[in-house]
Design brief:
Elements lengths: L16 H9 L13 H18 L4 H66 L26
């Protein structure tokens, strides 16, 4: 007794394959691609393709335009902030250089003043001046103005 092999055919698919079979059974969309392009027409064709792409999607064109405008605004804002930060950095460096220069000028002037003060007694003697020999001091700690010598 020979038994023949049986084959069973069914449209049932395993759990994970149901989606695959439905997706693969759909035909892909066909689009026409023009072979000739000119430099001036390339931008127009690109814009037309963008419009066609947005119409084929569930997202409306307005949402795409708003998203692109937001991204462009963010890009420009970031560029403006970076430019301002660079300008501030250059300004800070310039101010610090000015401060350093002015500090050095003050130190030079102070050194010149100290040198002149040190040479002052010698110049006075060269002019014939004599240093003071004794000093007189007046103690006004107990001074009381007289009553008749007031302001009238």
């Amino acid at each position: 007794m020979a038994t023949s092999a049986r084959t069973v055919r069914s449209n049932a698919a395993p759990a994970g394959r149901e989606r695959e079979s439905k997706e693969t059974s759909r035909r892909p969309e066909l689009t026409v691609i023009k072979g000739r392009r000119t430099a001036s027409n390339a931008v127009g064709e690109g814009f037309e393709r963008l419009l066609t792409w947005t119409r084929a999607r569930s997202m409306p064109l307005l949402q795409v335009v708003v998203a692109v405008a937001f991204l462009a605004a963010c890009l420009l804002g970031s560029l403006a902030l970076r430019t301002q930060m660079a300008q501030n950095s250059f300004e800070q460096t310039r101010v610090q250089d000015n401060i350093s220069t002015l500090t050095q000028d003050v130190q030079d002037d102070q050194a010149k003043l100290d040198e002149l003060e040190a040479s002052l007694p010698q110049k006075a003697q060269d002019m014939g001046m004599v240093p003071q020999q004794g000093s007189i001091s007046i103690d006004l700690s107990g001074y009381q103005p007289s009553k008749g010598a007031g302001h009238e």
